[in-house]
């Protein structure tokens, strides 16, 4: 979950992603809607020309669509894409049922320049940070608009 998911879409090779998904990884990509108000607001905040971040997001969404074209039918079903149009607050990458990487979107700071935090589930504190960020992702996912190829 984030703006354009560049770390995933441009930082992980297509071959590696395909292999992971073919081996059972469920990939849920929740992009900020490139046509939405929140994307335009972030472009303004970061001082980008209108459409700059939207173009990056659309490019990364196409990368995921191309990935799906290379997968077996069973694996294709494990790659889901949605968009949302809420104020941009966090990039959330959940690795498994116990670890998530969270990066805040700070005022006038590019996502790559913001600190990232590894948050781990703690059975002793079931309502800790992991469950909070898991809920943020899940609630946004549930409201998201499904993107079909």
Task: Give a topology summary.
Blueprint: H1 6-9, H2 14-22, E1 27-32, H3 37-46, H4 52-70, H5 73-76, E2 79-84, E3 90-94, E4 99-104, E5 117-120, H6 129-143, E6 145-146
Parallel strand pairs: 1-2
Antiparallel strand pairs: 2-6, 3-4, 4-5
Helix content: 40-55%
What is Rg? 15 Å
Q: Characterize the largest beta sheet: strand count, sense, and whether it forms a barrel.
A: 3 strands, mixed
Parts with pLDDT < 50 across at least 5 consecutive residues: none
Number of strands: 6
Question: From the helix content, strand content and strand pairing, which structural class follows?
Answer: alpha+beta
Spatial separation of the terminal alpha carbons:
19 Å
N-to-C SSE string, H for helix and E for strand: HHEHHHEEEEHE
Instruction: Give me the number of helical elements.
Output: 6
- Determine the strand fraction and express it as a percent band: 15-25%
Shape: globular
| Tally of domains | 1
Q: How confident is the prediction overall: mean pLDDT?
A: 94
Cross-sheet strand order for the largest sheet: 1-2-6
Description of the molecule:
With 149 residues, this protein is an alpha+beta fold. The protein has one domain (6-146). It contains 6 helices and 6 strands; from the N terminus they run ααβαααββββαβ. It has helices spanning 6-9, 14-22, 37-46, 52-70, 73-76, 129-143; strands at 27-32, 79-84, 90-94, 99-104, 117-120, 145-146. The strands form 2 sheets. Strands 1-2-6 form a 3-stranded mixed beta sheet, sandwiched between helices. A 3-stranded antiparallel beta sheet has the order 3-4-5, covered by helices on one side. The longest helix has 19 residues, at 52-70. It is globular, with a radius of gyration of 15 Å.
